[in-house]
Amino acid sequence: MTRIKDALDAVAAAVIAQKDYLTSLDAKIGDGDHGLNMARGFRAAQEAVEEMDDTTLPGPVLKTIGKALIQNVGGAAGPLYGAGFVSAGEACDGDTHMNVASIEKLLSAAIAAIQKRGRAAQGDKTMLDTLIPVRDCFLPENAQDKPLFEVLQDASRAAGEGVNYTKTIAARKGRASLVGERSIGIEDPGAVSSMVMYRALYQFLKN
Ligand code: ADP
Ligand code: MG
Ligand code: MG
């Protein structure tokens, strides 16, 4: 089964397609490299996964993606996303299947790792302003008895709302915090890359 690899290819293609847009956002409030960093990282992740003998289990694949991001991306986002993927991989077991509870578990593990490393909270104008609302859709109190596809759709909407929210606030973490109030009006590049990744996964799962 090559489905996990196919999902990675879908996410990588979306990130690479949005490279210039992500970079242009980062040029406005940071140093203009976010798209380049993410595209480089995902190409490296694809190469690393290509070299794996066995890509049937999600845990080892997620860990390989995470390590490739950590090793190949300078700057803030690569190591943060990398730590997130590694922790999500560690949260898998031989028996992990795609359902509301397992997605919640993986996203929560990723968010915890990103927060441990980056010490940012929701509202600081970072990738977390997308990732936390996305994860919250999969919590039992919000997912209730909804079918998986409906929760995945809720989360796609939440990702867009998270990005829009970052437009209204000033950055308090990362390079964009250096421009402070002047970052208001611009979407956070990392919040956008998180939305791009999530929506690529959603489209992949829907098909
Ligand atoms: P750099 O800022 O080092 O050039 P990138 O441009 O690749 O790195 O990534 C910038 C993105 O990283 C920001 O838009 C933000 O979403 C995210 N980011 C920066 N610092 C943090 C942090 N401490 N916690 C979570 N995300 C962060
Ligand atoms: Mg940057
Ligand atoms: Mg940089």
Automatic annotation (TrEMBL):
<dbReference type="InterPro" id="IPR012737">
    <property type="entry name" value="DhaK_L_YcgS"/>
</dbReference>
<dbReference type="InterPro" id="IPR036117">
    <property type="entry name" value="DhaL_dom_sf"/>
</dbReference>
<comment type="subunit">
    <text>Homodimer. The dihydroxyacetone kinase complex is composed of a homodimer of DhaM, a homodimer of DhaK and the subunit DhaL.</text>
</comment>
<dbReference type="InterPro" id="IPR050861">
    <property type="entry name" value="Dihydroxyacetone_Kinase"/>
</dbReference>
<keyword id="KW-0808">Transferase</keyword>
<keyword id="KW-0418">Kinase</keyword>
<feature type="domain" description="DhaL">
    <location>
        <begin position="2"/>
        <end position="203"/>
    </location>
</feature>
<comment type="function">
    <text>ADP-binding subunit of the dihydroxyacetone kinase, which is responsible for the phosphoenolpyruvate (PEP)-dependent phosphorylation of dihydroxyacetone. DhaL-ADP is converted to DhaL-ATP via a phosphoryl group transfer from DhaM and transmits it to dihydroxyacetone binds to DhaK.</text>
</comment>
<comment type="pathway">
    <text>Polyol metabolism; glycerol degradation.</text>
</comment>
<dbReference type="Pfam" id="PF02734">
    <property type="entry name" value="Dak2"/>
</dbReference>
<protein>
    <recommendedName>
        <fullName>phosphoenolpyruvate--glycerone phosphotransferase</fullName>
        <ecNumber>2.7.1.121</ecNumber>
    </recommendedName>
</protein>
<dbReference type="GO" id="GO:0004371">
    <property type="term" value="F:glycerone kinase activity"/>
</dbReference>
<dbReference type="InterPro" id="IPR004007">
    <property type="entry name" value="DhaL_dom"/>
</dbReference>
<keyword id="KW-0319">Glycerol metabolism</keyword>
<dbReference type="GO" id="GO:0005829">
    <property type="term" value="C:cytosol"/>
</dbReference>
<dbReference type="GO" id="GO:0019563">
    <property type="term" value="P:glycerol catabolic process"/>
</dbReference>
<dbReference type="GO" id="GO:0047324">
    <property type="term" value="F:phosphoenolpyruvate-glycerone phosphotransferase activity"/>
</dbReference>
